[in-house]
Automatic annotation (TrEMBL):
This is Cyclin-like domain-containing protein. Residues 48-136 form the Cyclin-like domain. Belongs to the cyclin family. InterPro entries: Cyclin-like_dom (IPR013763), Cyclin-like_sf (IPR036915), Cyclin_N (IPR006671), Cyclin_PHO80-like (IPR013922). Keywords: Cyclin. One of its GO terms (molecular function) is protein kinase binding. GO terms for cellular component: cyclin-dependent protein kinase holoenzyme complex; nucleus.
Length: 166
C-alpha cells in the first residue's frame, strides 16, 4: 500500500488486500449513504478514508484485525434492519481503531492524534462520543486472542500470515 503522507521507516504499510477487506467489512455494517446533498464538509469515499487513516495512524496488522473482530461483534449487537446516517461508517471505523489501539498497544493511538490524522473533520469531543457509543455496543467486551482472529480470518475466507507482523 502506498501512503500519500510521509511515514517513518519503522512502519510497514499494510497489505492492500487487508485495507480492501476492512473497507468491505465496515461498509457492510450499516447501509450508509455515500454522499449527502448540501454537506458542508463532504467525506472522502470510505476506501480512501480508511487507507489514509491507516497510513496516518501507522496502524499495525494486529490492531486492524482486532478492529475487524470488534466490527463483527458490533454488527451482532445492532438491531435488525439498522440503517446508518451519512458518515456513520467512517465514524465506526475511527471508534474501532481507537479502541483496539488503546486496548492492545503499549503506545496507543490517542484521540488528539486521530483528530490530526483525519484532518480535524471531527473534534476530540466528537471522537470521544463515538468511542463511548461503540464501547456500549460492544458491552466493553474488548479481549481478542489469536485463536479468535484466526477463526475470524477462516470464517471470512481471508488467507494471510499475520502473526509476528509487528
Amino acid at each position: 500500500m502506498s501512503c500519500a503522507i510521509d511515514t517513518p521507516a519503522t512502519w510497514d504499510p499494510l497489505p492492500d488486500s487487508l485495507i480492501d477487506f476492512t473497507t468491505q467489512s465496515v461498509g457492510s455494517l450499516l447501509n450508509c449513504p455515500a454522499s449527502l446533498a448540501g454537506a458542508t464538509q463532504p467525506l472522502p469515499p470510505l476506501s480512501d478514508f480508511i487507507r489514509e487513516t491507516v497510513c496516518g495512524a501507522k496502524l499495525s496488522v494486529e490492531i486492524l484485525l482486532a478492529t475487524l473482530v470488534y466490527f463483527e461483534r458490533f454488527k451482532k449487537a445492532l438491531p435488525s434492519g439498522s440503517v446508518g446516517e451519512y458518515g456513520a461508517c467512517h465514524r465506526i471505523f475511527l471508534a474501532g481503531i481507537l479502541i483496539a489501539s488503546k486496548f492492545l498497544d503499549d503506545k496507543p493511538l490517542t484521540t488528539a492524534k486521530l483528530v490530526q490524522v483525519v484532518g480535524n473533520r471531527w473534534s476530540s469531543k466528537e471522537i470521544n462520543r463515538m468511542e463511548r457509543a461503540f464501547l456500549n455496543f460492544l458491552q466493553f467486551d474488548l479481549w481478542v486472542d489469536s485463536e479468535e482472529i484466526h477463526a475470524f480470518l477462516q470464517d471470512n475466507g481471508v488467507a494471510m500470515d499475520w502473526r509476528g507482523s509487528q
